[in-house]
Amino acid sequence: MKIRQTDFNYEVRKLEVIDSTNNYLRPISLPDDTDFLYVTSEYQTAGKGQGGNHWESERGENLLFSVKCKPWRVKASEQFILLQTVSVAVCKALSRILNKQCMIKWPNDIYYGDKKLSGTLSECTLHNIWINEFIAGVGINVNQLAFHSDAPNPVSMANISGHTFDRNALLDDIAKEISHWFEYITNEDMDTVRTEYESLLYRHTGIHKYRDKDGVFDASYEEILPNGHLILRRTDGILSEYEFKEVKFLIPISPRQSQRILPHHQQ
Asked: pLDDT tens digits for 193-232?
């Protein structure tokens, strides 16, 4: 399909402290000349990940933002495509900036190796059968060196690269990437986004260990359904379908890296 080039306009609002950037954006209407409204915060007092998990972030060290938009002709039954679009955009941007391959751990985390670099929390409002407004809240570990919560496998861009990053420039890069991938949604080309998402999936090849309500099992990736459900093929050939939080990826966790002294410069 020929992609119609769209000049998306976006606005960025910067806050010092907020309970949640998603909460901030929820009641705000998009300005008439704005396609994407971003809000960032140096610190969130109630930042969350998927499933209500707390997102650990030191003040001023990481990139915490939410973005609001009005998607073009996305059905409520296909709202997972919007989370896929943001996940692809963030993954592609981070891979390019780090010059290292990042992956998407279903449904929306960005991983470097077996470590979590970023997470996203999304929500939608509906009008009849269509998505009316979409908000994605994204947390990216950027310059934080040490993590103290019980999260098993966090990593930051600074841990990976050995230097710090300009968070404003990082947001600009990600916003441009999000605009690019939303062109496919605007042109109703969902398959391109789904194909790219699948190609970037963490554990999309090979047999790996998982745990569900019945215990630990070995399985390989089979597919992601349009509703976002994950299909795994067990080693006995049985296909199992999961909603988020119904299956856990069993990930080998290495000892935490000791804090490294980084040079005082930014990319």
From this structure: 999 999 999 999 999 999 999 999 999 999 999 999 999 9
Q: Which among 201, 180, 187, 230 is positioned nearest to 80, based on CA atoms?
A: 230
CA–CA dist 163, 169 (Å, integer): 15
Q: What is the rounded CA–CA span in Å between residue 22 and residue 33? A: 21
**Residue 52, phi-psi category: left (phi > 0), alpha (psi -120 to 50), beta (remainder):** left
41-72 as b/e: b if 16+ CB within 10 A: bbbbeebbbbeeeebbbbeebbbbbbbbbbbe
Whether pTM > 0.85 for this model: the answer is: yes
Partners of 11 in beta bridges: 37
